[in-house]
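BUG: 3D viewer hangs when loading the predicted structure for this chain

Environment: internal workstation, default settings.
Expected: structure renders.
Actual: progress bar stalls at 90%.

Input used:
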Amino acid sequence: MQALNTLRCSCTSRGFRNANTLLGNTKCLQNVLPRTYCSTILDTAFTFNIKGALVTRGCFGTTSQLLGCFKSNHTIVYPNSLSRTFCTVSETGSCWRCGAPLHLTPAFFCPACEVIQAPEEHANYFDIMDCDKSFAVDTQRLQKRYLHLQRSLHPDKFSRKTQKEQEYSEIQSALVNKAYKTLLKPLSRGLYMLELGGVHLEEGTDISADPGFLLEIMEINERLEQTQTKEEVNSIGTSIQGRVEDLTEKINASFRKGDLQSAKVLIVEMKYFANIQEKVKERLSVMAV
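Structure tokens produced before the viewer hung:
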């Protein structure tokens, strides 16, 4: 407890002058104090506003945030949060051309000379698309952000610029495309969030799936193959869409609770339904010919 009180004092009196040391002390205490203490310490240590840069703890995924002019990568586990929560603090970068500080993460353009910047190495798709690190993404806002970025970053706008600017434009534009497509659909968004949390779907995930569920999937596929009319195919498609919407709500609830393993099981089920949805589209396409 004495060590905890000492660190709290350090947070208020010396945090601004020696933040790197503070984070190092916090990491050491993490190994000897209960996790609830560590959470309290970090709640204190990560709420400073240094040089206009507000520092907050991310709820999920890898975050890149400003904390003065130093750099530290720090992994923290909170007892009542997600099973894997990453908090990455990155130094304020500078423009490759004029040297002006870049206050945003990721920074697409220099605020001083307005030249395009290199992609932020540690920025994740949620950072790029400026949306909450949540499974419940506002898709309309996501689309607006995508259109705005593509208008600004499209390579056609940089055809008369320097070679470096053209290269950065191509990389940034492709990265925005990938981020948008990944976060737009629930399945790819969920898989990405699992990846950020260090959870991956192994090959042959159907082996661990519920036998009753697998039997249901087989029956739906057989019924789809035997359908003769568009009405029947559309009926199957509507039914599957309802199941996907139900799974989406359950997956969102699992992520909010930090239960990545439950989210993983539900996402595996969603993969099967997404596969059937693709087959429905193909079947309707053939019938339309």
